[in-house]
From TrEMBL:
It catalyses: tRNA(Trp) + L-tryptophan + ATP = L-tryptophyl-tRNA(Trp) + AMP + diphosphate + H(+). This is Tryptophan--tRNA ligase. Homodimer. Belongs to the class-I aminoacyl-tRNA synthetase family. The lineage of its organism: Bacteria, Pseudomonadati, Pseudomonadota, Gammaproteobacteria, Lysobacterales.
Length: 335
């Protein structure tokens, strides 16, 4: 059995980057034979950025509904909310005590905050919470607690998986046993990073996202707003560095992508290109949107699915695993 695990932070509305980089590949992977999947809502992680209780709750519901609408089968995969598993923060502490501070200093999200502070002449750590600094340790606990082998993520998350390997390895070494399997990142090279409306990585923090379940009208408007150069119809267009082209590629077969590249070379007008992109995305998302809306109308059902997943997962895996780890490090047996 290969164990595949991935999570999405509940800090906003699910967007096409989450879909292409995490949800779509994860659901495809979960259907392969011999795979045991773990998909979860990273609500503890959301507290680092979004300290707005209503938003965290809303986002949790939306992201859960997105997974379900995309075909996640809660009786075939482990589907849960991170904060329903108290063993995860418990493991976070055990890992914190073996994690090198120097490694955390190099984490991208933390370094970006320090760089911003330096650029503004502030102290390195001004406004940086210990939570942001510790983010990779919590994420390592998410992965290591279930001995996941493969972690499908976008390229932005690869460094965190490497850190999880490092912390797991140190723990194994210090306590003299292979308690943890060392995980590997699985990045789909075709769609490593989906750009957003402005050409930067599609991200809640850049406010450049296309929500997964935008209405058709909204979707059309957002696509019309994708940044392009000012070349007129008839002038050849570059596919290199074109957000429009890259998003198209994430929604089309290799053959259709080649035809779209040819249309660029032949000087397709931006209006036409945007219309074609809209039709692509709309065709893929419309059936999912209908399911999503039906699910969002029944939040109690979503809640019941999440609670049931977490309860079974604790009983079968999290609680016994933590018991073993507590014993390994010399803590009292709680059972
Ligand atoms: P998050 O919530 O930022 O993103 C969730 C998933 O979506 C992918 N993603 C993208 N992929 C391609 N293009 C984009 N523009 C794009 N934007 C987001 C991310 O790579 C990710 O796969 N720390 C994680 C959540 C997490 C997690 C974990 C993931 C917590 N614990 C354990 C895996 C394993 C995060 O903030 O992802």
């Amino acid at each position: 059995h290969t164990r595949v695990l991935t999570g999405i932070t509940t800090s906003g509305t699910p967007h096409l980057g989450n879909y292409v980089g995490a949800i779509r590949p994860a659901i495809a992977a979960s259907r392969a034979a011999g795979v045991e999947s773990f998909y979860f809502l990273a609500d503890y992680h959301s507290l680092i950025k979004a300290q707005d209780p209503a938003r965290t709750q809303r986002s949790t519901l939306e992201i859960a509904a997105a997974w379900l609408a995309c075909g996640l089968e809660p009786d075939k995969v482990w589907f849960y909310r991170q904060s329903d598993i108290p063993e995860i923060p418990e493991l976070t502490w055990l890992l914190t005590c073996v994690a090198g501070k120097g490694i955390l200093n190099r984490a991208h999200a933390y370094k970006a905050a320090v760089d911003r502070n330096r650029a503004e002449g502030e102290d390195d750590d001004a406004g940086v919470s210990a939570g942001l600094f510790m983010y990779p340790v919590l994420m390592a606990a998410d992965i290591l607690i279930f001995n996941a082998h493969k972690v499908p993520v976008g390229r932005d998350q690869v460094q965190h998986i490497e850190m999880a390997r490092d912390f797991g390895q140190r723990f194994n070494h210090i306590y003299g046993q292979d308690f943890f399997m060392l995980p590997e990142a699985a990045v789909d090279d075709n769609v490593a990073t989906l750009p957003g409306l402005d050409g930067r990585k599609m991200s809640k923090s850049y406010d450049n996202t296309i929500p997964m379940f935008a209405s058709r009208n909204e979707l059309k408007k957002l696509i019309a707003g994708i940044l392009t150069d000012s070349r007129a119809p008839g002038e050849p267009k570059d596919i290199e560095g074109s957000a429009l082209f890259q998003i198209y590629q994430a929604f089309a077969s290799a053959q259709d992508t080649a035809a779209f590249a040819q249309a660029f070379a032949d000087g397709i007008g931006w209006g036409d290109a945007k219309q074609q992109l809209f039709e692509r995305i709309d065709a893929e998302v419309t059936p999912l949107r209908e399911k999503y809306e039906a699910l969002m109308a029944r939040p109690a059902e979503i809640e019941a699915i999440l609670r049931d997943g977490a309860a079974r997962l604790r009983a079968q895996h999290a609680t016994p695993t933590l018991q073993r780890l507590r014993e390994a490090v010399g803590l009292r047996d709680l059972s």
